[in-house]
């Protein structure tokens, strides 16, 4: 439920940061985009910021079934399985 400006902006509250990281994760694994390209799409973020966000989501997926369910739902909404 985040706006595009929240995803690409500089606000780093936990809810917005998690949403941003999940969006970066989806871009990386569903679109096979480079870290640099994702960073550019997210308001000029550095590639290392994108790498950190993707890695954080990967770690969380191992221990958080709710996040896994949410990402599966997002994939279904995007019609990507």
What does this structure look like?
This protein has 81 residues and is mainly alpha-helical. Helix content is 73%, strand content 0%. The protein is built from 5 helices and no strands. It has helices spanning 4-8, 14-30, 35-41, 47-63, 65-77. The radius of gyration is 12 Å and the shape is globular. The protein starts with a helix and ends with a helix. The model has no long low-confidence stretch (mean pLDDT 94).
Give keywords.
81 residues, mainly alpha, 5 helices, 73% helix, globular
| Average pLDDT figure | 94
The number of helical segments is: 5
Helix and strand pattern: HHHHH
**Quaternary structure classification:** single chain
What is the CA-based Rg, rounded? Answer: 12 Å
Give the tally of β-strands.
0
Global outline: globular
Entry summary:
It contains 5 helices and no strands. It is mainly alpha-helical.
Describe the secondary-structure layout.
Layout: H1 4-8, H2 14-30, H3 35-41, H4 47-63, H5 65-77
């Amino acid at each position: 439920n985040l706006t595009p400006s929240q995803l690409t902006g500089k606000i780093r509250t936990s809810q917005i940061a998690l949403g941003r990281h999940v969006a970066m994760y989806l871009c990386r694994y569903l679109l096979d985009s480079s870290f640099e390209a994702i960073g550019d799409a997210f308001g000029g973020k550095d590639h290392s910021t994108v790498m950190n966000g993707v890695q954080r989501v990967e770690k969380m997926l191992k221990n958080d079934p709710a996040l896994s369910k949410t990402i599966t739902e997002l994939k279904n909404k995007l019609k990507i399985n």
